[in-house]
Design a protein that fits this description.
Among the domains are: about 325 residues, Rossmann fold, CATH 3.40.50; about 120 residues, 2-Layer Sandwich (GMP Synthetase, Chain A, domain 3), CATH 3.30.300.30. About 30% of the residues lie in helices and about 20% in strands. The structure holds 5'-O-[(S)-butoxy(hydroxy)phosphoryl]adenosine (WT7).
């Protein structure tokens, strides 16, 4: 449980200034409210719900659930019987009731410095309504699934909220398209990340063909031309769409500052049977659209995340609980105030972007920076340049980005003032104390508390986290639970451990934002999260609790890897490798990496008669990239004529991890069937990344 008093030694505090205006001002204040949230969740969440618009009130219990598989089907329901619309709450309510129409919703900052746009709440509402009307005119209805494959542009937020407005379920794609989705697809031509051109249209076309091959025909694709004018005139060439379908808004875009450096643009083949142009469709659409009133437990979105058995899982979140939870966590964890400028550097395609770029900030009427580029382009000061340019007060990024920038020392940071910064956040993986100290001392100049937020795609929002003015911080600890969240640490036999201890991190009861099911496979949902320890939600992470009651995440304890804050399953990478005809067997392990946290070290056993060479290596790399995504690109591939196995034929990953790191102390290997295999692998280790 939470201690009555916060520790006084070896902890860091936020500035006194921050405490003056904060929502939660002291540890005692946090503890008191936390107890209320646990003892009386209906009242606690009921207070949060008062800020929102409900077309009809809920009828049953505020939060109804079963978390115990031995007692029947797992379910969580929040505010059953109520109806609302999340886009109405994020936009109309802020524009009309809260009079925030002229407030900036997003400062869009492009990949190229100087490429920028500003969008107010009123404009965002209009654009969402227009696009919602476009979707309707294309036949999209409540409950339909819409896939979105777009870069970090305002239109991506518009597309998400337009779906939400008409009750369609969005699924943002960051990797090959899951074939279980029926689609209209919204996508963009491409974008630049640093100097690199990413041709989204071609990638999407390939994926669409695969969907067709599998019997899921995609009827419509709406394409946003982001790399604009040149694309219009040059690359489309003879395949360009008929004039009425080309993109007419370029003139207007120029006036708003979206001027592109002259650069190669993607070659985008155009199929008039399927492809529709975003700009042309929007131009004729009305900017008013009555929201579709949705039930609390209607699906809001599906987001695919890695599964330890290999196949990605479609995590499903629903309307009301997710809205309340992302709104409350955003407000309290970043201590959001009306004049803040907030910046989360994550991609919207990840849950961090869903919850803390789109839903949480807009629910609060916040002003955010939406950044298309990279922390290192055009140089490694870019982040701090943007902080000063927009006077960013609350800044949220990942440990991998901090470690990357740390390599360049403090000088690129100190080129900019960063005076506006008040709170710094991190997410995605454990932050090592060195990186924490650098972030705190150099970036925040010892003035800004660091909120190390632990959560998952599945949890919808932060579950373990400091509150900036209330929680004394310890570098590397995600500290204490957020309101409504009850963590426990279990041992291997499923017993709850008390006091200082280490084991499996689980949660004992739901909070409004927890996922509701794996899309199309409720059984997999129960098996993955609830079967190992009946009565608990199992995170898959290891965790330690210290003498002061602080929680420290120790990393995944299943077959998952965390590469730059992105979860990957070893099984998923292995099956991508084995799909290549030259590969008979593959085993993938993580190898510590100074910036990415973990890198992918792959052992491959080739099919009979195939010889290993660089061409094959490159093909394998490409294969994994294409099947899973760039984040899964193998860092090392080692030719393994044989893999270390137990007598019963199980691959000994523990031994492979040692080989990958060149650690000769193998521990107990008495179960190993043939120990000469290990020596051979040590001799042929890969010393440099492929
Ligand atoms: C896994 C969830 C949450 C959005 C981004 C990743 C790891 C996440 C922390 C943190 C230690 C963390 C865990 C978790 N993780 N945040 N602050 N400290 N570990 O979402 O892809 O669903 O990954 O990321 O291992 O289970 P995700």
């Amino acid at each position: 449980m939470i201690p009555d008093k916060a520790p006084k030694e070896d902890v860091f505090h936020g500035s006194e200034d921050l405490k003056k205006e904060a929502h939660i001002t002291s540890f005692e204040n946090y503890k008191e409210l936390y107890m209320k949230s646990i003892e009386n969740p209906d009242e606690f969440w009921g207070d949060v719900a008062k800020d929102f618009f409900w077309k009809t009130k809920h009828t049953g219990q505020f939060l109804d659930y079963n978390f115990d598989v031995t007692k029947g089907e797992i379910f969580v329901k929040c505010m059953e019987g109520a109806s609302t619309n999340i886009s109405y709450n994020l936009l109309d309510r802020n524009v009309h009731e809260r009079k925030l129409g002229d407030k900036v919703a997003f400062y869009w900052e492009g990949n190229e410095p100087g490429d920028e746009l500003t969008v107010t709440y009123r404009e965002l509402l209009q654009r969402v309504c227009q696009f919602a009307n476009v979707l309707k005119s294309q036949g999209v209805k409540k409950g339909d699934r819409v896939s979105i494959y777009m870069p970090m542009v305002v239109e991506l937020v518009v597309a998400m909220l337009a779906c939400a407005r008409i009750g369609a379920v969005h699924s943002i794609v960051r990797r090959s398209l899951p074939s279980s989705l029926f689609l209209p697809l919204i996508r963009s031509d491409g974008f630049y990340r640093g100097d690199k051109l990413i041709n989204l249209k071609l990638l999407a076309d390939e994926a669409l063909q695969k969907c067709r091959d599998k019997g899921f025909p995609i009827e419509k694709c709406i394409m946003l031309k982001h790399l604009s004018k040149e694309a219009e005139e040059t690359s489309l060439g003879s395949q360009s769409p008929p004039a009425k379908r080309s993109c007419p808004d370029l003139q207007q875009e120029k006036q708003t500052g979206r001027v592109k450096k002259t650069r190669p643009v993607p070659q985008v083949p155009w199929n008039p049977e399927v492809d529709l142009c975003w700009h042309a469709l929007v131009r004729g659409a009305s900017d008013e659209c009555e929201p579709e009133w949705c039930g609390s437990e209607d699906p809001l979105f599906i987001l695919y995340t890695s599964g330890s058995t290999g196949k990605p899982k479609g995590v499903l979140h629903t309307v009301s609980g997710y809205m309340l939870y992302t709104a409350a966590t955003f407000k309290l964890v970043f201590d959001y105030q009306l004049d803040d400028v907030y910046w989360c550097t994550a991609d919207i395609g990840w849950i961090t972007g869903h919850s803390y770029i789109t839903y949480g900030p807009l629910a609060n009427g916040a002003t955010s920076v939406l950044f298309e580029g990279l922390p290192t382009y055009p140089d490694v000061s870019r982040m701090w340049e943007i902080v000063d340019k927009y006077h960013v007060t609350k800044f949220y990024t990942a440990p991998t980005a901090i470690r990357l920038l740390m390599k360049y020392g403090s000088e690129p940071v100190q080129k900019y003032k960063r005076e506006s910064l008040k709170v710094l956040g991190t997410v995605g993986e454990p932050i090592n104390p060195e990186a924490w100290q650098w972030y705190y001392n150099v970036v925040g100049e010892r003035r800004c508390p660091i909120v190390d937020t632990f959560w998952q795609t599945e949890t919808g929002g932060h579950v373990l986290t400091p509150l900036p003015a209330a929680t004394p911080m310890k570098p590397g600890s995600a500290t204490f639970p957020f309101f409504g969240v009850v963590p426990a640490i279990l041992n291997e036999s499923g017993e709850e451990l008390e006091g200082p201890s280490e084991g499996y991190l689980v949660f004992k009861q739901p909070w409004p934002g927890v996922m509701r099911t794996v899309y199309g496979n409720h059984q997999r949902f129960e098996t993955t999260y609830f079967k190992k320890f009946p009565g608990y939600y199992v995170t898959g992470d290891g965790c330690r609790r210290d003498k002061d009651g602080y929680y420290w995440i120790t990393g995944r304890i299943d077959d998952m890897l965390n590469v730059s804050g992105h979860l990957l399953s070893t099984a998923e990478v292995e099956s991508a490798l084995v799909e290549h005809e030259a590969v008979a067997e593959a085993a993938v392990v993580g190898r510590p990496h100074p910036v990415k946290g973990e890198s992918l070290y792959c052992f491959v056993t080739l099919a009979d008669g195939v010889t290993y060479n660089r061409t094959l290596e490159a093909e394998l790399k490409k294969q994994v990239r294409e099947k899973i995504g760039a984040i899964a690109t193998p860092d090392y591939i080692q030719n393994a004529p044989a893999l270390p196995k137990t007598r019963s034929g199980k691959i000994m990953r523990r031994v492979l991890r040692k080989i990958a790191c060149d650690e000769r102390d193998l521990g107990d290997i008495s179960t190993l069937a043939d120990s000469s295999v290990v020596e051979q692998l040590f001799q042929n280790r890969c010393c440099t990344a492929v």
